[in-house]
Structure formats: structure tokens, C-alpha cells
Amino acid sequence: MTDIGLPVLSAAMFETGLRIDRYVASIVANREAFRANLVRSGQAFTRDDLDGFRTRPRTLRVAALADETRHATVRDLPLLGRLSMETRKVELRIFRTTTDPDVAAALAPADNPTPDLVLAFYDEDMTRLGVIVDGLPELLLLQRERGQRWVEAHPEVVDSALPVTQMTPLTRRRFEQACHTLSADESLSWSRALVSAVRDISAGPRPPAP
Question: What is the side-by-side strand order in the sheet with 60-66?
């Protein structure tokens, strides 16, 4: 999560994105997993969370650059989709790199042109509030640690230490399973952490300390 170099997006461009229902209808890969997470994500919200969003004086707009073949999209985007279904004060629009190149160019970080997921947050005037790329930083750190442990535990896998793009399909699948698989309790815990992060972002920038 960062507030530096936030992507610029116009209101007109934002409105060209898909709402959650149309996005789900268009999914080919991982459709059932995405739908299951959309249903399950309701467990991540407390009544205080929902009341906090529903009573916002201004609408929170979220532009998502998504790829449903990637773990972060299937894991995190359903939660934002569910939030947009639960309250009218959160507007979600979803874009794909393949079909929305102009938006992808605006949202994808320069050092990560093919992200798993970008969640860019704006107020109703499209003032930039914050962005989350590929997931919460703490979760990304945990995934890197799990990946490193898997590599160290499998010296017999000769390509395990290579960059992911250079691994064989089998090694890449095993490596990504080690990095991304979460238990039910872990999944709920990280979902709640994401809700908390979104609430913090939606509150706007904090005034500098005196």
C-alpha cells in the first residue's frame, strides 16, 4: 500500500469499467473459485465495517486492474466486489490488461507492468487516496518467505531457484501453491486485514504530525 505515485484516472475512464456482476459473468478462468470467495467474503466484514462505509459522507471509488488467472485477483477482488454490493457508498469498476490497455497503462506501476491485481482508491471527485498492488505488503512478505522455504526444502528441483517465469510449468505450480495457499483461518484473517486497510485508505490522508 502506498500513497506515492498514485495512478491518475478520469471519471469518464473510471465509468468504462465493469461492475462486479458483469465481471463475474465474463470470467472464464477460476470462475467457481471467484464466486465462492465472493460469497465467503461477507464473513470478513463486521457490522461496524459496513456501517462505517454506509455512513460515509462521500462515495469511495475503487478501480481494479484484474486478472482472474492470478492468485491476488481471485483472493482479494471478491472482497471489494462484495463491499460494493453491500453499500452504495463504494463504487467498484474492474478493468483487464488485455481489453483496457489505456487504463492498464494508467494503473500498472512502472516497475510492475503486469501486476496480479491493482486496487486504486479515489474519492467521488477522483482525488487519489491510495493504491494496493498485488495484496497487502505483510502478506506479500509472508508469501516470499514461504517461497524461499519451499526452495530450500527442495534442492532436488533443479529449476526451483530460477525466476518464476523460467520455471517449468510443474515447478511453477508447486512453487505458487507453496506461496499462496492459505488455510480457512488465514484467509479470513487476511481478508479482515484488507478490510481494515481499505477503511484506513478511505478515511483519506492523515494530517502531518506536529
Answer: 90-96, 60-66, 117-123, 128-133
Instruction: Give how many domains the chain has, as a whole number.
Output: 1
Residue 145, judged by CB atoms within 10 A of its CB (0-12, 13-18, 19+), counts as exposed
Q: What is the mean pLDDT of residues 166-181?
A: 88
Q: Are 21 and 84 in contact (CB under 8 A)?
A: no
With bands split at pLDDT 50, 70 and 90, how would you rate the model's confidence at 207?
A: low
Q: What is the mean pLDDT of residues 49-73?
A: 94
User: Would residue 52 count as lying in a domain?
Assistant: yes
- pLDDT tens readout for residues 67-86: 999 999 999 999 999 999 99
- Which cell numbers in the block locate residue 130? 491510495
Residue 114 corresponds to which amino acid? T
Give a yes or no: residue 155 inside a domain: no
pLDDT digits (tens, 9 = 90+) for 113-133: 889 999 999 999 999 999 999
Q: Is 177 a member of any domain? A: no
| Intra-chain end-to-end CA distance of the chain, in Å | 24
